[in-house]
Amino acid sequence: MYIKFCRSYGEDKKYEASANSSSDSQTKEKTRPYRLACVILSLICLVLLLVVIILSVKLQTGITAPWEKEESTPQSKQGAQTCSFEQCQTLFPDVPLKNLGCRQCADGWLTFGRSCFFLSTFRLNWDESYRNCYSRGGSLAVVSSPEIQGFLTSKGKMKYWIGLRQRGLTWGWVNNTVLGESYWADVTSNGDCGILSSDGPAERNWIKASCQSSSYFICQLKS
After folding, report:
1. Could you tell me which residue ranges the C-type lectin domain spans (predicted)?
2. CB within 8 A of 97, min separation 6: which ones?
3. CA triplet 147, 155, 173: central angle to 5 degrees?
4. Residue 112's pLDDT band (cuts 50, 70, 90)
5. 51 and 125 co-located in one domain
6. Is the pTM of this model over 0.85?
């Protein structure tokens, strides 16, 4: 009887081991597709992460799109054709500045020879005009040649203060030079400060006015 019990017990253990092995095999077969799916999804996430990183790096480095390059090309070409006033003078000393495309004056200023001129669009008295020009880095205009006189007359449309003032009995410029050649109008006027009236002929369009009067003004900045 003891032998039968042992045999029965041994057969039960074998059956239990066989059942467990079969169950483990079925479990592994069921979990295998899920593991494969997890691996595939992980790879997809990794690829997407790499794509996001690459795009972020490109955006940070400022890579431009093709249409942006096409729009910026004309500006780049235009910028390559300009130079500073000093560079133009050094590279091409014998060529007139107007043929070089150089910009020696800021926006709102007119270029003539080696000077820049600013024609105001508001009115001040002579002293206020002087200080305004000084704040811009220049002074009231000094008409030192017939060419400058003709240029300012042609560009202006109003009456403008220039850097001409009477001290005692002598008329002089703001650069401390005494008035030489002049372009006084034939009309009689009184005052200690000079105005260029652009509606008159360039040969005689200066008039005298009170320095406290309000008028437009012309600033000059020499290069």
Report:
1. 112-220
2. 85, 88, 104, 111
3. 55
4. very high
5. no
6. no
